[in-house]
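Worked example

This section walks through a single chain of length 268. The input is the sequence exactly as stored; nothing has been trimmed or padded.
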Amino acid sequence: MKIEKKADYAKVQPYYELDFSAAFCLFEVRVNDVLVFTMNLDGQTSTMIPINSAILESGKQQIAITVLPLAGQKFLNPSAQFKYNIKVFDAANELNFKEQLPGEYAVAKVDPSKKQTILTQSADFNAELPYTIRAYQNSTDLTSVSGLKDKLNDAYQQLSALIKKGEVEQIKKLIANRESVAAVTMYLSKEESDDRMEGIVSNLKSGYKLAPIPADALVKIFGNGKLATLIRPNGEPALILKNEKDQEELQLEFTFFIPAGKTDLEII
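Given that input, the structure is written out below as tokens.
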């Protein structure tokens, strides 16, 4: 992995967010074919999510929305919907709002006369960033890797074993590349980056237990074939920490790739 920061990195820090509303669907948000957010929404919501993590360099970016039937259903709910715009904030100035990019977008409405199973929408936008990251762009094409699910299962079992044992230092090593990307794209100081890591560690020590990975977990390939993860049939991550006492859960999202010249999966 190679990270290059421009000279004005400390002063120019655009922070891109997707401002969306959605209802009655299982939806995916991808930026440059990187899965940044998914939710099985049996109701309605309106919120914003950061998308900088999928923007690795300045220039033209693509955003793609997929709307699917709710988990356990075959066809789209007649009330399924997803609409959004893109806002830019200034991370160098307490995340003050800077601008809304041109365009208001929405997935087409469900046609009640048809039994629809999917709706999609895509758009392009331009981003100007003070950094360039070379991470997985030239890694192995996972669509051509035989036994990928078995490799993912092995990687998840290794990670699960470390979580159960509380092997904090080993976990830190495994997610170091991911945290390096997060620190750059989110403009985190060393202290903020350390706090983020400590937050992950503290959750492992505060009564949360790892829920079993379901046998019917699905392989999800994205990032133009370079990234993969395991998800539950309802779209949630395969790894979930649960605190039975407080009736709370934490979803642990991990994305894997195989660096060029290597054969083993690594977290990115």
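What to look for: Residues 148-165 form the longest helix (18 residues).
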